Each structure stands twice: as C-alpha cells, then as structure tokens.
Amino acid sequence: MNNKNLLILYGEYRTFETVLPQLKKLDEVAIIFSTWDKSTNGAAPGEVNAYKEFNLKETNIDLIQKKLPNLKLLVNKSNPHESKSVVWKIVYHWKTALKHIKNGYDKVFVHRCDMVSNWETVLDLDLEDNILYLDCHDDENWEGKLWINDMFFYGKGNVVINFIESITEPLENLEPPKIHKVLLDTIFNNKIKYKKTTLIKFRLVRWYLEDFFKELTKSNINYIDSPDEYKKLIQIEKKYLK
Predict the structure, then answer these.
(1) CA torsion through residues 206, 180, 7, 122, sign
(2) CB atoms < 10 A from the CB of 136, how many?
(3) pLDDT for 55-88, tens place per residue?
(4) Alpha-helical segments (H) within 68-148
(5) pLDDT of residue 47
(6) What region, left, alpha or beta, does residue 28 occupy, with left being phi > 0 and alpha being psi -120 to 50 degrees?
(7) N- to C-terminal Cα distance for the chain?
(8) Which end is more exposed in the chain, N or C (fewer Cβ atoms within 10 Å of the end residue's Cβ)?
(9) pTM of the full predicted structure?
C-alpha cells in the first residue's frame, strides 16, 4: 500500500457493496470513507419506485473492513442532521474526512461512494502543483457560466485540502443543484487554479442497476473497461426512468 496517496469516499452507503468490486487498486492507497448510519436506496427523480431507507448494519461494516483493511470508516449519525440540506451533507463528509488526515499526501482523490470509475488512473499521473482537477464544462445557462461536478475531484494533497477548507458559506438550506454554485464560488473567491479533466470515466450505480453490476462482477467484467456494456445499461435505465 502506498500511504502517500489518499482516496476519500463519501455519501450515503446506498449501492457501495455493489460498487466496491468494480473499483481498482483500492489496496494501493489509504482510504477514508465518510457515510451515514442510515441510507436511502438512491432513487433518482422520475423513477418508478420511491425512495426506500435502510440502516447500516454491523454486517455491512464487517464486510467492507474485511475487504479493505486500509480503510478508515466513519459512520456518522444522521438524526442530528436530518433537517440539513443535501449540499450541507456533501460538504460535511468532505470536512469530516479531513479531520482524520494525520499525514501529508502526494495525491488526494475525492470520490462519491455509489459510483464506479477509473479513479486509479490518477495514481500514475504527474499532477501539476497548485492545480485542482475537476469534471466541469462551460454552460451559458448556468450561474457563473461554468458547471462543476461534485461527484469527484482530485489533485495534490495540499490543493484538495485547501479547496475543501475554503468552503465556508452557509450551506444548511441550499437545494441540491446549488452545490455546483458553491464549488464555483469557492474556486473563484479563493483564486484556486483548476483544470478540466476528461480522463475519468464514471457511472452512478442506482439501485435498479445493482443486478446488472453484480452480474458483471460475477463474470469478471469491469464496466469502465467494457464500452459494449453501456448499451445494456441504457436499456435497463429506460425501464425505470420516465
């Protein structure tokens, strides 16, 4: 394991156990995972099924700690924060992870936990100093004309830590889309240098995709490495999204 690099996983537990075997090189880095003791199934707007809730059990915790001995798992109590906005909760996970960083890291990758990706490609890259790498694009219809994805970002350790620490505006009552504006404001108000990245391929794993991804894993197929699987996934989504 390379203790010089850190992967921060965050968010509701949701489909993490299905995502886990699709993520590569998890044994080569330090990992901090901040999640809640309660989770929803991750339903998206317009789905046939409504949200379903479940509690994170000891069996869930034992499973991931057995598979990832290099993992620092932070199970946060959700009850005190149920009235807070989704935006506040996202940033809460990021800042909670920072509290448990004891050493400096060459690279830090922040990654939503119910998402598959090729995050590991960053391990072999020479990242620029003082640059935050983002999934973003120009959008004339969006505030600030730049839309920034909150599902992942990465950079040298000091850059990522500085970015998260710089998020200081009130977040308690912001609706979910406002997370993109918060990230934008933080970058420009603090003069944080950034670059758009197109290297990271990713896909959220909603509850209705779990069987699909479990079959891939059973067949030793990695979704990110198998472009042909995309068409099958789209067909499944059409059944659940209006």
Answers:
(1) positive
(2) 19
(3) 888 888 898 989 999 999 999 999 888 889 999 9
(4) 86-98
(5) 54
(6) alpha
(7) 44
(8) C
(9) 0.92
